[in-house]
Amino acid sequence: MSIAQDQEQASKPFKQLDHRYEGIAKVTGKARYAAEFSESFSKTELVYAFLVRATIPSGSVKSIDSATASRAPGVLAVITPFNAPKLSQGPPQPPARRNLTLLQDANISYNGQPIAVVIGQSLNEAKVAAAMLKISYALQPAKLQWEKRLSEARWPKNPGKEPAGNHRGDIDAAFAKAAVTVDNTYITPIQFHNPMETHATIAWWQGDKLTVYDATQYISGVKMSLAKAMNIPVDNVRVIDPLVGGGFGSKGSMWSHVPLCAMAAKVVNRPVKLSLDREQMFGPVGARPSTINHIRLAAAHDGTLLGIQHDTVMNASVLEDFVEHAEGPAKNLYQSGASSVSAKVVEANLGISTFMRAPGEAPGTAVLEIALDELAEKLKMDPIELRLKNYAETDPSHEGRPWSSKHLRECYSKGSEEFGWASRNMTPGQRSDGKWLIGHGMATATYPANRSAAQATVRLLPGGRMYVASGTQDLGTGTYTIMAQQAAAGLGLDPKMVEVKLGDSTLPKAPVSGGSQSSASVLPAIQDATTQLKLKLIDLAVNDAASPMHGLQAADCDVKEGRLISKSQPAKSDGLVELIARNKNQPVEAQGQAEPSEAKDAMSTQSWGAVFAEVAVDPHTHMVKVRRIVGVYDIGVLLNEKTGLNQLMGGMTWGISFATHEDGIVDASTGRIVNASLAEYHVPVNADVGVLDVSVIGIPDLKFNPVGSRGIGEIGITGTAAAIANAIYNATGKRVREYPITPDKLLAG
Amino acid sequence: MKSFAYSRATSNAQALEAARARGTQFLAGGTNLVDLMKYQVEQPVTLVDINHLALTEISQIDGGGISIGAMVRNSDLANHPLVRTNYPLLSQALLSGASPQLRNMASTGGNLMQRTRCYYFNDISFSACNKRAPGSGCAALEGYNRIHAILGQTDKGPTSGETCIATHPSDMCVAMAALQATVEVEGRGGRRTIPFAEFHRLPGNDPSRDTTLREGELITAVTLPSAKFAKNAFYLKARDRNSYAFALISVAAGLEMEGTTIRSAGLAMGGVAHKPWRIPEAEKALAGQLASPENFAHAADILLHGAHGYEHNRFKIELAKQGVVRALTVAAQGTSEVA
């Protein structure tokens, strides 16, 4: 489909909020997060739980002597594997399935696993008492140093949506006839999510009804999982979380501390707060696994890709397989004669791995796009030219089925122009600025566009105000803002007139805020709801003797800019404010729902982008400074300039982190995470982030959903790491194939 | 953190009297101590708050040099006109450390008492740490030792009660070592002066002790001798991010120049040892020599003589050599060249 055709189908422009819906509440400190609620119970009732964690990687708890701790000031209870209430823990559930550790046995599977909960009048009293527990362990040999046991790699037991191995064409034949090949191993480290808001839960029971405030990306998931864990009917659980302080996938699952908090509340018969320490964020609530990637590329002289092979091996917890599909982009990012990919795991006594921003695509593009850069260099081809040569016009991973919409070409051309790519020196180590070595690199960004079923409620209120609600979440991403916009657009009202409710499991159901799907799922449900609302309002008006619309055919009526109008008699109209006033100020409500169309299996839906980076490398300290990044994305309609570009920018910043900073270090003999703090586990600071220039192509993808937008939660992190790695190579001539690219590696390189 | 008693001292005498009780520690900026209390690495019985002592002056002293009160904040010290003009090396080192918020709180005396960032020291779930639990061994030796020492460490194997490969994390102290500062302390027995090189100690056979400060002694000031390196000084810091990261290695280089000849030098390294690493022979080797890459490399070789790395930190030896040469090169070009 051409651009012109796409544009023709574009929905009408909608009004954007200039500011984040909840922005004022956030900057004035009025916004409250899960750990900050207390009005539902008396403040003096609230007590605090502290999670006690194992200090060995494998074995069991032999005994816990809690006599001293129990007598310590303020201590209300100590729950251990030996006295914990028995739960009938059901099997894990998708998509947030997790094998939890809920003190139902004394086994220890990783260093840092919860093994007890101390409940105190204050957090500090609980913590001090926790240190008084005398814990003795029965040690078992631990499976650690997984990277030295690659021969133990096996197929995952439950690979998820994607098969763990996939072959297309004859890969051996491709390499046999290749003129140029690349064959290297690329490594990405374990990474921890570390949203600003640590995981936190407040739980309290009223009879057999359980209410929790929980920091989560999926309130209805927590509702289901918690009901199952506590063995109570699903409808007895209410989960509330109006604002999430970042999640990045870590809060997409319910982890052990949530049922443990509910258990603690039951034991002490009080509302209990359990908030994780920063160091407790390193282990019990997921991580991105480390991946070791063997990549082979086969190309003809003219740059045509004959074959791509990507075999990835990663660490998996002995508790549960989680597959980071780093090999994914090798299947669909480029057209190639043949492709062969596999994903295998090596078990280790580590915490469970989980989704982290752009699972699969983040490490996948980080490694594959270095390999492409190496191929371009061998071919003496411009890296963009190589990518255009192998542009996937249709989806090679699904027998060439069409994309719903793809404008990656425009991303390359717009990005290279804005960046000034033409002036790049193809020979590394040739450009300097004072002491600095300057380098330029680029990479492709990509992430699938996902969508699930969602429901929403809208109401027209007196005075031209509206209400919209859906049981979705706002991770700081702008869900409130775009919900207000979508609701207002349905009646042609100003989005400032809309009140938004989300983050409460009593609201209409919406999916997990993960996989970049919230806007693409919830907005069509709101759109449906406003359509239903419009019909109700029209019905109300044409049956209202006092309305100028009285007696008109409903089919002749529409809503425009806050007024009901007659299509055939433009003079006839009725204000929505007046209509509700005459309705004795009774709001009119409508429900809506939406789900992916049946046509979804006939096309592939994917977002795209091109990322360009300029770095400066100090040849004496081997430190890297990212001077600027240009990112141009094809993500359909950008729903809100401020929150949308902000989210992409956040992803790009994380790309800097991926490229040069983050590295979760496991102690080789104890399996403990050694750098479990934000002082030692590095993420970028202001001095590390240069100018970020973000823009979008903005062509609506109306085949994907009626709003024309694809989610943008993840794509920003993809491509950026490799663009930086390639720029570092261009600056120094040193090809580092193991992230993060730190001074020691550049010194050695 | 464990409960503790708190008292506020308004005079040195009062602070010293309060410090007689066992388990007492002075609380200055608290930027390191409070974290360690939260981790239960430090468990003081009593904290004596010295933030209200009259130790906040920076003054010129007779015969040249300056005296820096122990409670002068790192931000104030780094930005003081006397320091910026006469001791740019110290100013650069301070500003390369921590974050503005931390520097606003951190004090001069507290910075001297900063404890190691060794992961195994900072997490009490590791049982082996001779610094935290004397005699327990050293988990870092065969653990993740990328940030650890290559010089002056005690290495008698992971189970020895003497082994310690921790580094001192301060930037300020590296510059002070190169500047040959002295530390003024006051105890109940009176005052004494400790040359900077003798203030911090190597682990030797007792890694639990970072300094030669005696029980109950209070740091009152640091004095700097008259400025020799105002025009030719450079603090180089190699680290994993561009701010708010401890040094992988750092180099404080001060030169007193006569044309292209070095009259005298001050040279110390950070991030490589249990204390700021200064070998006077390296400075002597530079004195009277031309400011040349060969002479700088020679000084680096003297400084790094006997360096010994481990699985993850061997890179520090080469990085430190390059850093010393680079820092001396930039220093020789003149402080004004440093942007």
Uncertain segments of chain A: 1-11
- Using only CA atoms, what is the Rg of chain B? 19 Å
The CATH architecture name of the domain at 233-337 in chain B reads 2-Layer Sandwich
What would CATH call the class of the largest domain in chain A? Alpha Beta
Q: How does CATH name the architecture of the largest domain in chain A?
A: Alpha-Beta Complex
Unreliable segments of 5+ consecutive residues of chain B: none
Shape of chain B: globular
Spatial shape of chain A: globular
Determine the N-to-C terminus distance of chain B.
Answer: 43 Å
Our Rg estimate of chain A from Cα atoms comes to: 27 Å
Average pLDDT for all residues of chain A: 94
Helix content of chain A: 10-25%
> Biggest sheet of chain B, open or closed, and with what strands and sense?
5 strands, antiparallel
Class from secondary-structure proportions of chain A: alpha+beta
What is CATH's topology name of the largest domain in chain A?
A: Aldehyde Oxidoreductase, domain 3
Number of strands of chain A: 27
Textual characterization of the structure:
Chain A contains 17 helices and 27 strands. With 749 residues, chain A is an alpha+beta fold. Chain A folds into 3 domains: 3-29 and 452-466 and 477-501 and 510-595, Aldehyde Oxidoreductase, domain 4 (2-Layer Sandwich), CATH 3.30.365; 33-356, Alpha-Beta Complex (Aldehyde Oxidoreductase, domain 3), CATH 3.90.1170; 358-450 and 601-748, Aldehyde Oxidoreductase, domain 4. In chain A, strands 3-5-1-12-9-10-11 form a 7-stranded mixed beta sheet. A 5-stranded mixed beta sheet of chain A has the order 7-15-14-13-8. In chain A, a hairpin with a 6-residue loop joins strand 25 and strand 26. With 339 residues, chain B is an alpha+beta fold. Among the domains of chain B are: 5-52, Uridine Diphospho-n-acetylenolpyruvylglucosamine Reductase, domain 2; 233-337, Enolase-like, domain 1, CATH 3.30.390.50. Chain B is built from 13 helices and 11 strands. The interface between A and B is large, with 39 and 36 residues.
